[in-house]
């Protein structure tokens, strides 16, 4: 069983990722949280936790860690410090710890932030983090969803390297996709976009990985 460090575990999407990982037979989640009081909610469920602030050194969080999911975000409050530099800090620590795979929760539009009508600063920060990951030498998967909603999981998505339209997708379906691409034989050194769709998540990821 592989230990997966989840950065942003206390977030809305992060909590769903941790829950999904805890239900698998292959992965054991390690929830990285910023405040001590955030640990109890995971520990009562028997989930390992580690304190880690993305604006500080996070290398201590990597003890016995095999893979990483970055699902942290500042909610627009500190896009440079958290979404960009925090991600870079985690990538560098991952490289130093010989992590097998780094899964990045990015955003549609991060490949061309200058074209966006809004959130340009955020998308630029995500672009910089994504590029840092691509150039790190690590194995990675960069997942770029459309607008996130709190709708229930549909277990279905549309997935392409570059989708021709914008749209929405539930955090639940994003969480499932992120967990799915952790597998060694799936989505290695690639980035792709996802939205609500008609294809089962596992099938969509598998088809993309075969290309």
UniProtKB/TrEMBL annotation:
<protein>
    <submittedName>
        <fullName>SDR family oxidoreductase</fullName>
    </submittedName>
</protein>
<dbReference type="InterPro" id="IPR036291">
    <property type="entry name" value="NAD(P)-bd_dom_sf"/>
</dbReference>
<feature type="domain" description="NAD(P)-binding">
    <location>
        <begin position="8"/>
        <end position="185"/>
    </location>
</feature>
<dbReference type="Pfam" id="PF13460">
    <property type="entry name" value="NAD_binding_10"/>
</dbReference>
<dbReference type="InterPro" id="IPR016040">
    <property type="entry name" value="NAD(P)-bd_dom"/>
</dbReference>
């Amino acid at each position: 069983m592989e230990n997966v460090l989840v950065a942003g575990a206390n977030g809305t999407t992060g909590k769903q990722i941790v829950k999904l990982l805890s239900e698998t037979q292959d992965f054991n989640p390690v929830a990285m949280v910023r405040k001590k009081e955030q640990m109890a909610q995971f520990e009562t469920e028997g989930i390992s936790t580690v304190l880690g602030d993305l604006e500080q050194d996070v290398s201590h969080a990597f003890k016995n860690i095999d893979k990483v999911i970055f699902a942290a975000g500042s909610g627009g409050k500190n896009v440079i410090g958290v979404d960009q530099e925090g991600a870079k800090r985690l990538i560098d620590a991952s490289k130093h710890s010989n992590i097998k795979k780094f899964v990045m929760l990015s955003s549609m539009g991060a490949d061309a932030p200058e074209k966006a009508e809004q959130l340009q600063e955020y998308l630029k920060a995500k672009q910089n983090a994504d590029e840092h990951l691509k150039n790190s030498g690590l194995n990675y998967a960069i997942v770029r969803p459309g607008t996130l909603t709190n709708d229930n999981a549909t277990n279905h998505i549309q997935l392409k390297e570059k989708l021709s339209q914008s749209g929405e997708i539930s955090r639940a379906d994003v969480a499932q996709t992120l967990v799915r691409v952790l597998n060694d034989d799936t989505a290695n050194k690639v980035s792709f976009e996802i939205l609500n769709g008609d294809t089962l998540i596992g099938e969509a990821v598998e088809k993309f990985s075969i290309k």
